[in-house]
Amino acid sequence: MGPRLRRSVAITVVFALGWAGLKYGQHRARVIAEQRKAELRERAVDRIKGKPGYAVIWDAETLAMLANDPDCVANATGARFSMMDCSDPRLGRISDLANVKTLTFYSCNNVEGVLAAAEAMPAVEMVFFEATDVDAASVDRFVNWPSLSTVVFDGRQSEQHVARLSELAPAIDAMTAEEHWYGDPAANQD
Fold first, then answer.
1. Which pLDDT band holds residue 56 (cuts at 50, 70, 90)?
2. What is the spatial distance between Cα 77 and Cα 118, in angstroms, rounded to a whole number?
């Protein structure tokens, strides 16, 4: 075997080993990420199973686990969707958590399907959008929510949504997140 052939074989072997190592690393990273998600899901269920409180929902599997556990259904007084795309139709199971009084969306996208499923939930009194945008049609539908008393908007169209909901349903206290946390800025001026 000549020097050129040896060099070509060596380069091919190094490339093949590098490729295999890269693929193994990607596979291992996926396995670790799935293990972490499973731990977060278990922690979310365990937190609610023992006492009333907020259910943190990371994905549709977390919600399914909560909705399938009678203790979680009884104890979930709030639900926080956190950093996720809410377009998965399985998230419609939010309506199974009948005792939820507060829905919070933190840094979520496509929340409209979850809102449609939650519309008939009898206990929901407050909806809070934190770093989350919502479409105008969903804002208009808040008038149909049976117990809704407060909606807080923190997104690109917050002020428009507050004005629209205040016009449609004066009984619902619509506000921006700034007003919620710091009060009405007009009332704080000297």
1. very high
2. 14
Q: Is the pLDDT of residue 2 over 80?
A: no
Task: Give, in order, the Cα–Cα distances in Å from 80 to each of 77, 86, 101, 175.
Answer: 10, 12, 11, 19
Distances (CA, A) of 190 to 13, 154, 176, 185, 186: 76, 26, 21, 11, 9
Mean pLDDT of 139-157: 93
Whole-structure pTM over 0.70, yes or no? yes
